[in-house]
Amino acid sequence: TSPRPGGAPQAMTATLDLLERLIACRSVTPDDAQCQDLIVARLRALGFDCETMMHGPDNFRVTNLWAKRAPLDARRPPAATKTMVFAGHTDVVPTGPVQAWAHEPFTPTHAGGKLYGRGTSDMKTSLAAMVVACEEFIASTPDTPLTLAFLLTSDEEGPAVDGTVRVIETLRARGERLDSCIVGEPTSVERVGDMIKNGRRGTLSGRLTVRGIQGHVAYPQLARNPIHQLAPILARLVAERWDEGNAHFPPTTWQVSNIHAGTGAGNVIPGEVVVDFNFRFSTASTAEALKARVHALLDEAQLDYRLDWTLGGEPFLCASGAFVDVVREAIRAETGIETELSTTGGTSDGRFIATLCPETLELGPPNATIHKVDEHVAVADIEPLKNIYRRVLEGLHQRLVASDAA
């Protein structure tokens, strides 16, 4: 045991030790703050080839890591192995007002059986657990036919344009084959392993500018109020039923996030109104079909408008199959829980990875405190998560060995 700041002594494990070291790194997007250096040192000791990929402008430099360990048997052709990827991000969101925290956010602090610090849940616990799971698995099975890999970025919480998506582009250009991937996002609700994300909805954003004619409110006949023109069509967009969803996804949703209009004066009809909105869409719809329907409604209303679109990511789904079975069995063996498969929630870098890796899912600790003041993880959840990851590797190894023997 070792005394930890702010609480009673805690049993120090390899996972907890690495986690605390990662929390102490002030890795606010896009600054990796040497988190990946800590991980690289551990992975190189296991025989991983580690490649750092830097992307982005000088004022927003993103650190990405691609690390890979091929089977020790050089005679095994690439086609005879399977590549299992652990993916995640070392960056965290800003702390907000530090004075609102009960504990300094970048000093790992124990209190009441919980470990406090920015990134404990999202997602440094997962990263530490993944690394130690690989250490334990390779120690017991050094000659595994599995190819193991890590894909890490310091730009998941930010724009996410120079992070995982850039690594995936590089790997695709090289002809890399990725078979299975666990993204360490905090997916659990009450207990570790009670929910995994086997897919995510797509995200499609729009910025609609409706143009009118500015004028004096006392002379509306000399102006054209774009807010008044927008109001009926806005109500139609809100009421629209975009699809019914399907067995894996809830129905597509459309939400307004911002409306901007006016000069600030109370006696001026504005010349334009700008509306920001977002679709979270299922595999029951496509981005192009949703765009077409919105344009049709706007054209029908005969608005003078401009609409700019941003596709943040397509929906993806890891349907039930061998990989999902291995993960569910690992959770069951470690916790006794029958995990729930879910596609709810926001987006993740899984949307980029799934374009190259057909079996991509997300599994991590409980998410109740992510992005909040006093973010924390229950210490009792740390080792079970690491054990689940290790059991996944063991299950994939056993299946690959069995297929070799068949």
SS content category: alpha+beta
Content of β-strand: 15-25%
- Helix run count: 9
Q: What does the overall shape look like? A: globular
The whole-number mean of residue pLDDT values reads 95
Low-confidence segments, given as residue ranges, are: none
| Biggest pleated-sheet summary | 6 strands, mixed
Q: Roughly how many Å apart are the termini?
A: 47 Å
Strand order of the largest sheet: 1-2-6-3-7-18
Following the backbone from N to C, one meets helices and strands in this order, namely: HHEEEEEHEHEEEEEHEEEHEEHEHEEH
Q: Give a count of the beta strands, DSSP E runs of length 2 or more.
A: 19
Helical coverage, percent range:
25-40%
Q: What is the CA-based Rg, rounded?
A: 24 Å
What does the model show?
By secondary structure, this protein is of the alpha+beta class. Helices cover 30% and strands 24% of the residues. The protein is globular.
Features of this protein?
4-stranded antiparallel sheet; 19 strands; globular; alpha+beta; 6-stranded mixed sheet; 9 helices; 406 residues; 30% helix
Q: Can you lay out the helices and strands and say which pair or pack?
A:
Blueprint: H1 14-23, H2 35-44, E1 49-55, E2 62-69, E3 83-89, E4 109-111, E5 114-116, H3 120-140, E6 147-153, H4 164-174, E7 180-183, E8 195-197, E9 199-200, E10 202-211, E11 215-216, H5 226-239, E12 253-261, E13 268-269, E14 272-281, H6 287-300, E15 305-313, E16 316-317, H7 322-335, E17 340-342, H8 350-353, E18 359-362, E19 376-378, H9 382-405
